[in-house]
Amino acid sequence: MSRARIATVWLDGCSGCHMSLLDLDEALIGLAPKIELVFGPLVDAQEFPEGVDVTFVEGAVSSHDDLRLAQTVRARSRFVVALGDCAVTANVPSMRNQIPPKKLLERIYVDGVNVNHRVPADGVPALLKQASPLHEVIRVDLHVPGCPPPAAAIGYVISELLAGRRPDLAGKVKFG
Amino acid sequence: MPDRVSIRIDGELLHARLGQTILEAATAQGRFIPSLCHLKGLTPVGACRLCLVEVAGIGRLLPACTTPVQDGMAVTTRSDRLDRYRRMILELLFAERNHVCAVCVSNNHCELQALARRLGVTHVRFPYSFPKAGTDLSHRQFVLDQNRCILCTRCVRVCAEVEGAHVWDVAGRGIGSRLVCELNRAWADSRSCTGCGKCVQSCPTGALAMKGFAAEEMVKRTETITRLVEAKGVRA
Q1: pLDDT tens digits for range B128-183
Q2: What is the ipTM of this complex?
Q3: I need a surface site. Which of A98, B54, B56, B205 has the fewest CB within 10 A?
Q4: Residue A2: its pLDDT value, please?
Q5: Which domains does chain A carry?
């Protein structure tokens, strides 16, 4: 059997969901021969590849770059998992959603500092008007809430997907 | 015994007291019907609609918390339709305000969060409204965070019925409804608030909380409210 091509993506989140994935600890050794990690913060690939079996997306969609990457993920993945509360609900990144981005950035980078009163523009992606949950911009096949989702839940999801089954998360996960 | 009636709940024949609601009769038998606005000891208002049940012969769904039992009544508390509606209600509650569980004082002790888990809500299908909801931090001991309020009115009722102060009310209509202190005063300026904290203890979410608590630290004592009512016989 060929190895499942798995990708992970880090949008507007704290990387806690990726940490929770790493918290699978020795269970990762059992997974390693069954999967090929083709993209994500844990590997070197620079461009999101074609033909991915499952992509786990951490983080809300907050910037134009996030949006573009999310669309690429959808186009090139068979199954997309929203991993954690930021991807599922927009969570903490959405706490800025009542404030227009321009006002928000000026409050932080101009009014809020004593030196270099300047909103950074070079090399940082422009913010969208609001941070959104992943499923508000692309079709999502499975939602795994939690801040972060417990490692056991992530392990369960991966093993079910590898077995060709749809994980039933009812009662196993929670927001927050 | 004329004050005892026989009802069927999910097919099982049970005895209930006349005057009991369907929710009380079901709970007394150890059955679970989800609810958020209900708090034992306070007048039931049927506001959250989570306890909707099917009653044979009646074409519409009835809230179990306000519907009295009748002899021969056949009640269904779980069905695909009810599950679907209940999940939808929870999703709408989440979409209506800014429930950021991860940073909430009531995280892991929240009735809304617990019900979502129990009923298998893993995401919200409706677009979040991200309203500018506001907070009232004026009170010395307590916090009102409208972002987390589900308008269950437990605080309104406990203050009016048990404490007798009637500090809280709901102003506005529909999605613009907001919990208000007296006639929309800052909490600290309230003339009738006794600072008893019953509203805080009855609140199912983190909307009303004690000051000085960090995320996950606020545990509510709803059973204290029920005990207090039963001890004082406020509501027979």
Answers
A1: 999 999 999 999 999 999 999 999 999 999 999 999 999 999 999 999 999 999 99
A2: 0.94
A3: B56
A4: 87
A5: 4-97+127-162 (3.40.50.700)
The CA distance from A115 to the nearest CA of chain B, in Å, is 31
How far from B193 is each of B12, B98, B122, B171, CA to CA, in Å?
46, 27, 39, 18
Q: Is the peptide bond before A148 cis (omega within 30 degrees of 0)?
A: yes
pTM score: 0.95
Q: How far apart are CA B120 and CA B87, in angstroms?
A: 8
Q: Which residue of B has its CA nearest to A168?
A: B120
Q: What is the dihedral of CA B64, B67, B69, B74, to 10 degrees?
A: -60
Question: Residue A121: its pLDDT value, please?
Answer: 87
CA distance A82 to A103: 30
Write out chain A residues lying below 8 Å of B122, CB-based. Answer: 88, 143-145, 169-170, 173
A11 neighbors A69 (Cβ within 8 angstroms): yes
Q: What domains can you pick out in chain B, each with its CATH number?
A: 4-78 (3.10.20.740), 100-232 (3.30.70.20)
Continuous H helices in A45-100: 64-76, 85-89
**How many angstroms away from the CA of A9 is the closest CA of chain B?**
19
Each residue of B107-134: pLDDT tens digit?
Answer: 999 999 999 999 999 999 999 999 999 9
- Determine whether the interchain pair B123/A176 forms a contact, defined as Cβ–Cβ distance below 8 Å: no
Tell me the average pLDDT of chain A: 96
pLDDT in tens, A48-60: 999 999 999 999 9
**Does A130 contact B at CB distance below 8 Å?**
yes
